[in-house]
């Protein structure tokens, strides 16, 4: 049995101001508002933009991937499986995210509350397929909290802790062995890695929030499997590379830590460096992809690897920007940026952009940001642009180079919640 009922109860208790929004709605009209009185094919109720946009903006919110529609389509299907609590939880969670995106906060609160109640009713001895549905609903609520970073109470971690608990049970029961289960699992793993990075550098974390960065990550495939080197469209790189990023985050020590200069720590960093340098990522092998898109995916995956190496050298290892190893990787990253029109992966762009020291390098980043925002006006790109500009201002105000570990903490801590670069 999954033990997240206390977590959900705690969220509702801490969110009484949200629940009071129900008073603004007459119960009778509201009973006609949701799906029991709507045709099952009335998708406008699920995503108000779905009927007017060929590509739903909600898909862009849940994933920055060019294949986000595949994930979103799966979530929609899961929400329509039946009218049992797991389906209702997913359905209401998607709708909450939709109305939040439309700045209809009161309506979003209603659906968020309904999703939480459905989750409470769903938790128990669930079938594997139902666990995946419930896990997806919990993850959607976590995404909504993160994206509501200007106004949200800091409860994103409650939903994400619940998501991880549910995913653990799904793994034990074999619910992630299916293709749909693997897609959901990889989506959560990607967010897990991004949260881990942000929480490491976010200065407002409390004890229970620190636990997230220490939890074991779960992937749909073992790192020893050959498939772990294949680029996963949902995450933009291979599972092996994303797992290596998690290991790099775990390996970062504060500069004053007694173990920072220890042989054991240096050996650990060196081992990660060797693995990252030797890592080869294979195309996903999906047929029907245009050559231009195939090349773009390959470039983005390689940019992710170069960004991870940059992060290792500059933050974990503490090397100077001018060191041979760091400078070589950074210059290769900027050369690669010149060959891509846009970058839908905020994390890679953030890491590389903070190494822009010349006006030429910054011009490259600004052009990529401009095109990326045009392609993806919703999601984390806009926040990433703001954070990059903040970092550049800090760098310009200092005559000497700022330690990247200090700079990351300064910029990321300006957000009320840890920014998710997913």
Please characterize this protein's 3D structure.
This protein is mainly α and 422 residues long. The chain is 62% helix and 1% strand. It has helices at residues 5-14, 16-19, 27-31, 57-62, 68-79, 85-101, 105-122, 128-147, 156-172, 179-201, 207-214, 239-251, 263-278, 291-316, 324-337, 346-353, 359-375, 381-397, 404-412, and strands spanning 231-232, 237-238. Strand 1 and strand 2 form a beta hairpin. Helix 6 runs parallel beside helix 8. The longest helix is centred in the last third of the chain and has 26 residues, at 291-316. The chain is globular. One of its GO terms (cellular component) is nucleus. Its main location: nucleus. Pfam families: Fungal_trans_2. GO terms for molecular function: DNA-binding transcription factor activity; transcription cis-regulatory region binding.
Task: Give the integer mean of the pLDDT values.
Answer: 81
Indicate the proportion of strand residues: under 5%
Largest sheet: 2 strands, antiparallel
Question: What structural class do you assign from the helix and strand content?
Answer: mainly alpha
Q: What is the share of helical residues? A: 55-70%
- Integer-rounded radius of gyration: 21 Å
What pattern of helices and strands is seen along the backbone? HHHHHHHHHHHEEHHHHHHHH
Outline, from the CA principal axes?
globular
- List the strand order in the largest sheet: 1-2
List unreliable stretches of 5+ residues. Answer: 1-8, 10-45, 48-54
Number of helices: 19
> Could you tell me the number of beta strands?
2
Distance between the termini: 30 Å
Organism: Rhizodiscina lignyota
Keywords: Nucleus
GO molecular function, one term: DNA-binding transcription factor activity
InterPro entries: Fun_TF
